[in-house]
Amino acid sequence: MENAGFARLEQLFGKGALKGKAGKIVEEALAAGVEPKLLAAVIAHETGRGTSNAVLTKNNPGGIMDWENNWETIRSFPSLDEGIKYTARNLRRRLGDSGGDMVKLKALYAPDKAKNDPKGLNKNWLDGVNKFYNYLGPTETPSDTSLQQGTLTAK
After folding, report:
1. Vertex 139, ends 142 and 85: CA angle to 5°?
2. Residue 96 has pLDDT above 50, yes or no
3. pLDDT tens digits, 40-65
4. Confidence label for 118 from pLDDT (cuts 50, 70 and 90)
């Protein structure tokens, strides 16, 4: 990310559990082959910019549900860095599963009417991610992108 973009990323996570974690988000995104802006947008949406209970008490910045109890509770990670790393790799896997299509990604990452979403918040996932993605820079929205050679590029 260029300096202006990185400054916006730091500003986005200027409070809460993710304060000072902009560099780690970029590092893990690049290691996983995910666009840093997209990972940051997903994390910002999932955590309310670093203020959600999941990130504050379970080191979970990605809204990752616990597969060991049939996806019924939020997964705990031993550290926030481990949570960021897992979220980046999970996002990369889901991008691959969706062919890079953000509408398909939303259906995999935050499906409507999921058993673990009794309040129906998943319906706002794509709009929320797009909002934070656009905040981070004047480029295309994720829903207008495709996966090519490990990175998101405009169609």
Report:
1. 55
2. yes
3. 999 999 999 999 999 999 999 999 99
4. confident
Task: Say what the pTM is.
Answer: 0.86
Residues near 155 by beta carbon (within 8 Å), at least 6 away in sequence: 144, 145, 146
If one counts every other C-beta atom within 10 angstroms of the C-beta of residue 96, the result is 13
Q: Where are the beta strands (DSSP E) in the chain?
A: 145-148, 151-154
Task: Give me the count of residues in the chain.
Answer: 155
Residues paired with residue 153 on neighbouring β-strands, in sequence order = 146
- Tokens 């990972």 sit at which residue? 39
Q: How many CB atoms lie within 10 A of CB 33?
A: 16
Question: Looking at residue 97, which CATH number applies to its domain?
Answer: 1.10.530
Q: Closest Cα partner for 42 from 90, 112, 114?
A: 90
Q: Find the domain containing 46 and state its range.
A: 3-154
Q: How many domains does the chain have?
A: 1
Average pLDDT over residues 15-35: 95
Reduced to 3 states (helix: H, G, I; strand: E, B; else coil), residue 133 is helix
